[in-house]
Amino acid sequence: MWRKQEEHNPVPPSADLVAQPVPESPRAAPVAPAPVATAGGVISKAISIKGEITGSEDFLIDGEVSGKVTISDGEVTVGPAGRVTADIEAAEIIVRGRVKGSLRGRERVVIGQSGQVNGNVVTRRIVIEEGAVFSGQVDVVRAEEPRASRPAVVVTTSEPASPVPIHAKDSQS
């Protein structure tokens, strides 16, 4: 009987002298999942929203939105499944789905390869990838100067302003 136990012992006698790492059980210590970088707000494929959306962090639209989207400090991404009928204003706008409406990206607008935009774009920088569909006008603007560096405009008059409107006929005579 003693011999049978030795035969079934998988560890050889010399293994007692060498420290072997003990495999941990998967249930011994729960492992936290790796953090996933996601947008601050998400509209998934199964969600449809009508109205005005405002916020200040990154926003992902992969569902349907109608109305207006204003994200003051973040990025708006229209995912491949996103369908937007709205004006979008944000620091950066990335379109990989469909947008019908104007885009105002204070820093940059990107229309990805799978993106379709039908509307006007106002931005400092624009990227339109090969394969993208764009119909509208683009207005590339300079960065706004800080208000402190702008010269002040002062208007002084010695007479009060005339309450009588000026007509086009009057200016030709």
The residue-averaged pLDDT reads 76
Question: Which word captures the global form?
Answer: globular
Multimerization status: single chain
* Unreliable residue stretches: 28-37, 152-157, 161-173
Helix vs. strand class: mainly beta
* Secondary structure tally, helices: 2
Q: Count all strands and give the number.
A: 12
Report the helical percentage: under 10%
Q: C-alpha Rg, in Å? A: 32 Å
Strand content: 35-45%
Secondary-structure element series: HEEEEEEEEEEEEH
Describe the sheet with the most strands.
12 strands, parallel
- How far apart are the termini? 127 Å
Account of the 3D structure:
- With 173 residues, the chain is mainly beta.
- It has a domain at 38-139.
- The chain has 2 helices and 12 strands, in the order H-E-E-E-E-E-E-E-E-E-E-E-E-H.
- It has helices at 2-8, 168-172; strands at residues 41-43, 48-55, 59-61, 64-71, 75-78, 83-95, 98-100, 103-111, 116-118, 121-128, 133-135, 138-140.
- Strands 1, 2, 3, 4, 5, 6, 7, 8, 9, 10, 11 and 12 form a 12-stranded parallel sheet that branches.
- The longest helix has 7 residues, at 2-8.
- The chain is globular and about 35 Å long.
- The termini are far apart.
- The model is unreliable at 28-37, 152-157 and 161-173 (pLDDT under 50).
